[in-house]
Specification:
It contains 5 helices and 7 strands. By secondary structure, the chain is an alpha+beta fold. A hairpin with a 2-residue loop joins strand 4 and strand 5. The longest helix is centred in the last third of the chain and has 27 residues. The N terminus is likely disordered.
């Protein structure tokens, strides 16, 4: 779904400033930065980039991204579903930007009404000068729902666990692709 299709139904982004995952994270939010080496060399950068843009960090954790059948594109409205059946949590978001540079690839999305958080999250892989391929999750958020607010200090801890799991999922995708190839 593109921005035009989802803008009326999903509403506006639920936070400001928008786009701060590109640089300094704003005050008034919980901040998260987690990085992990997931491979080495340009072929593994390309594999990691396909995995990141193809929503594999989310898919390999058991989340479902709707629609997740194509790479992330600026303006896409997505729903990340966590859990199963009637207990599944739907977290709507809009892809804000896509990073498409020779040594750096990824995307960021921002929260829409109905998401349990207000904020932004970026998933980016880059190639270091030494050949290391590094995956980084950068986020700033605050609770949108009273129940999430009640989690208090557990929320940043949960987000850190999720960031580590995203990184492991991308590292696993890179390993599997290069074993098979």
């Amino acid at each position: 779904m593109n921005q035009g299709e989802g803008a009326g139904r999903e509403g506006a982004l639920t936070y400001e400033p928008v786009g701060a995952t590109r640089g300094e994270l704003p005050a008034g939010f919980d901040h998260l930065r987690h990085s992990r080496v997931v491979g080495r060399g340009r072929p593994q950068l390309e594999t990691a980039a396909r995995a990141v843009l193809g929503w594999q960090a989310q898919d390999l954790l058991g989340s479902r991204v709707q629609p997740g059948d194509r790479p992330a594109a600026e303006g896409d409205v997505v729903g990340v579903r966590l859990g199963l059946g009637p207990w599944a949590l739907r977290a709507p978001a809009r892809v804000l930007y896509v990073v498409d540079q020779p040594d750096r690839r990824g995307f960021a999305y921002g929260t829409l009404p109905g998401h349990p958080l207000n904020g932004e999250e970026a998933f980016v892989v880059h190639l270091e000068p030494d050949g290391s391929v590094v995956f980084t999750v950068t986020a700033y958020s605050r609770p949108a729902w009273p129940l999430v607010r009640a989690a208090g200090p557990l929320l940043p801890l949960f987000q850190q666990v999720m960031a580590r799991r995203y990184a492991r999922a991308i590292a696993r995708a890179v390993r599997q692709a290069h074993r098979a190839g």
